[in-house]
Design goal:
This protein is about 25% helix and about 20% strand. The longest helix has 16 residues, at about 110-125. It is built from six helices and twelve strands. The strands form three sheets. A five-stranded mixed β-sheet has the order 3-2-1-11-12. The chain has a five-stranded mixed β-sheet with strand order 4-5-8-10-9, with no helix packed on it. Its EC number is 3.6.1.17.
């Protein structure tokens, strides 16, 4: 399988189209198709914070559900949007407010259509993708080797939020253990969730969330070539949003 795995898009539709074109995909049909039959992988967090979350949803739905040309693994922002669309009480903060604002601007009929598309996408996709004879795993915030193949609350929390210790940094953000330092599994793990200035390879893991929505870039990892391709963000740069050191405890 030849797959191009794209990091956290967060509503950056323009950069998404640019990156797929850079990867050799054509949008002549209205969605990206590669002449050599490559497909696209998504590490989650399609929406929130960026300017065009709903267009990203529509493209990923079209690729994944309609045409079977992509694999999607949900992120924590995807999970929160799903809970919002399900009618659960969630705080409309941390970027969800931008997606909700877009959604509420639509006529009621269009709201129902986009809501159904996203819920179908979420419900028909696994928590994480295990592909290529278990040689490749796409998981939003990563996954431990002993969690691969399992689905329970601990695994779900790890995949969506990372290896959270329960402690807090002075700014209130959660302390996360640097699980990648201790990963020695045989599968290549591709993930995002934590914005980094440059793609981060540790052991057989690749963090490809290069903070497009914070003014960084949108990055794809080509597999099996393990080649990185990026396009620059069109949004303002916020240096404080990028992780430059990692917890090890």
């Amino acid at each position: 399988m030849k797959i191009d795995i794209i990091g956290d898009i967060h509503g950056c539709y323009k950069e998404f189209t640019q990156l797929t074109e850079e990867l050799g995909y054509s949008w002549g049909t209205g969605y990206p198709v590669h002449p050599d039959g490559r497909i696209i992988g998504f590490v989650g967090d399609l929406t929130d914070r960026g300017p065009q979350s709903l267009k990203v949803i529509e493209s990923v739905y079209e690729l994944t559900i309609v045409h079977k040309l992509a694999l999607y693994a949900p992120g924590n922002h995807c999970n929160k949007l799903y809970r919002y669309f399900s009618g659960n009480k969630v705080q409309i903060t941390h970027g969800l407010e931008t997606t909700v604002a877009e959604y509420k601007e639509l006529p009621m009929r269009q709201q129902k259509i986009i809501r159904k598309k996203f819920m179908d996408l979420y419900e028909q996709s696994p928590l994480y993708q295990v592909i290529n004879n278990e040689k490749l795993v796409i998981a939003h915030a990563g996954i431990r080797s002993d969690y691969i193949g399992k689905i329970n609350d601990k695994v779900k929390s790890f995949v969506l939020y990372g290896d959270v210790s329960g402690a807090k940094h002075p700014d209130g953000s959660p302390v996360r253990r640097d699980w990648a330092q201790f990963y020695h599994g045989h599968a290549t793990i591709v993930y995002g969730h934590t914005p980094v200035l440059e793609p981060r390879k540790v052991n057989s893991t690749y963090n490809i969330d290069t903070g497009c929505v914070f003014g960084g870039k949108l990055t794809a990892l080509r597999y099996p070539e393990l080649e990185m391709i990026s396009v620059p963000s069109t949004l303002p740069f916020f240096a404080d949003k990028f992780k430059t050191s990692f917890d090890e405890s």
